[in-house]
Amino acid sequence: MALQDKYKGLTDAAIAAGITNLAVREQDGILYIDGTANDGATKDHLWEVYNQTDPNFVSGDLVLNVNVSINAAVTKAKVITQSSNLNIRKGPGTDQPIVGKAAHGEIITLVNRSTDLWWLVRTNDGEEGYCYAQYLAPQA
Amino acid sequence: MPLVIAGTLFLASCKPKDAAIQAAIQAKEPAGIVVSVEKGQVTLTGHVLDETAKANAEKIATAEKGVKSVLNQLTVVTVEKPIVIAADTTLIKNVADAVKDFPSVKADVKDGVVTLTGTVEKTTLIKLMQLLSTLNPKKIENKLTVK
């Protein structure tokens, strides 16, 4: 219960932000908060609140697993690496061979998003393979 | 006859309209609760922290003038939804993928606990923590030196 009190501000913020499938529970001294945000800004806001409660996340007493819902109709994504090209790999994993590259800022086609972490994509040159989803921003 | 009409008008004007009831209740409920009203029947939807908050929300709605009934469909978030913790084999692979682009960060995985050592910039720390938190770890032990 103490952990729920410590992170009450965060839970309240999640409720107020309209996070769906929200679940808050404690096990073995760690609080687990799961849910789905409507957009990236909402997710980032919750992380700011978390960072205020536990500066630099040093306590190790919370796992904040909030993902962002994606409209299934979206078929294009922009490459949002810091500046470099994004590797396209044969399979979902950094241990997989690189089969192509997508340029920073390029808009590519989403073929399949069946896994959260790696998305199957196709470039405008027709190269197909898996990219790390973190570096792709779905285009509405 | 004029008396009857006057009486009806009086009654009708006494009964606040659904929209007014909705606005009045909504203003009193905490953020995150969605209030809808149809013919004096109130429906509450959204999330609340616990059973107390759920009961309080219903009390607020019931107390409002003109409310006939309250349908409380609020979801309590502190439920017994199972906590998913990834197996080490899966976690090790996913953590390796996640920290690949953070060359100054070393991540070890054991029994679901991700231990981070090395250095990180304050601005990229959030990014890294966001990434790792979606991989269903048991715990993230952050021993990084923040620059």
Automatic annotation (TrEMBL), chain A:
<protein>
    <submittedName>
        <fullName>SH3 domain-containing protein</fullName>
    </submittedName>
</protein>
<dbReference type="InterPro" id="IPR003646">
    <property type="entry name" value="SH3-like_bac-type"/>
</dbReference>
<feature type="domain" description="SH3b">
    <location>
        <begin position="75"/>
        <end position="140"/>
    </location>
</feature>
<keyword id="KW-0728">SH3 domain</keyword>
<dbReference type="InterPro" id="IPR036028">
    <property type="entry name" value="SH3-like_dom_sf"/>
</dbReference>
<dbReference type="InterPro" id="IPR001452">
    <property type="entry name" value="SH3_domain"/>
</dbReference>
<dbReference type="Pfam" id="PF08239">
    <property type="entry name" value="SH3_3"/>
</dbReference>
<feature type="domain" description="SH3">
    <location>
        <begin position="74"/>
        <end position="140"/>
    </location>
</feature>
From TrEMBL, chain B:
<feature type="domain" description="BON">
    <location>
        <begin position="10"/>
        <end position="78"/>
    </location>
</feature>
<dbReference type="Pfam" id="PF04972">
    <property type="entry name" value="BON"/>
</dbReference>
<dbReference type="InterPro" id="IPR007055">
    <property type="entry name" value="BON_dom"/>
</dbReference>
<protein>
    <submittedName>
        <fullName>BON domain-containing protein</fullName>
    </submittedName>
</protein>
